[in-house]
Amino acid sequence: MKAAKFDYEAPASLDEALSRLAENGGKPVSGGQSMGPMLNMRLATPDLLVDLRRLDELNGYSQGDGKLVVGAAVTHAQVEDGALPDVTKGMMASVASDIAYRPVRTRGTIGGSLCHADPAADWPSALTALDATLVVAGTGGTRRIGIDDFLLGAFAIALNEGEVLIAVEIPVLSDAARWGYFKFCRKTGEFAETICGVVFDPANDIRRVVLGALGGAPKRLGELEDRLGDGIPGVNGIAAAIDALDIAFEPAQLVMHNTAVRRALRQAFGS
Amino acid sequence: MSDSGIGARVKRKEDERHLHGRGRFVSDILLPNLHDVAFLRSPLAHGRIRGIDIPDDLKSQVYTAADLADVTPVRAVATVPGFKASDFPPLATDKVRYAGEAIAMCVARTRAEAEDMVDLLRPDLEELPAVCDVEAAVQSGSALVHEDWGDNFFLDAVVGGDLGDLEKTAPVIVEREYKMARQVMNPMEGKAVLAHWDDTASQLVVYTSTQVPHSIRSGLSMCLGLAEEKIRVIAPDVGGGFGYKCILQPEEICVAWLALKRRHPVRWIEDRREHLTAGANTREHYYKVKAFADERGKLLGLDATVTISVGAYSVWPFTAVIEAGQAGGNLPGPYAFGKYRCRTVSVATNKPPFTPYRGVARPGVCFAMDLTIDAVAREVGREPHEVRAENLVQPEQMPFTNVTNKFYDSGDYPAGVREAVEKIDVAGIRGRQQQGEPDGRLIGVGFATYVEQTAHGRPVFGAWGIAVVPGYENASVKLTADGGLEIRVGVQSHGQGMETTLAQIANTELGIPLDRITVIHGDTGTTPFSTGTYASRGIVMAGGAVATCCRELIPRMAPIAAHFLQCKPDEVRLEGGMMKGPSGEVPLADVGRAWYLRPDQLPEEINESGLEVVMGYKPGIETGVFGYATHAVTVAVDPDLGQVEILDYVIVEDCGTLINPMVVEGQTYGGAAQGIGTALYEEMPYSPQGQPLASTLADYILPGPTEVPKIRIFHTETPSPYTTHGQKGVGEGGAIAPHAAIGNAINDALKPLGAEVGETPMTPHRILDAIQAAKAKAAAE
Question: Is B642–A256 a contact, with Cβ atoms under 8 angstroms apart?
Answer without folding.
Answer: yes
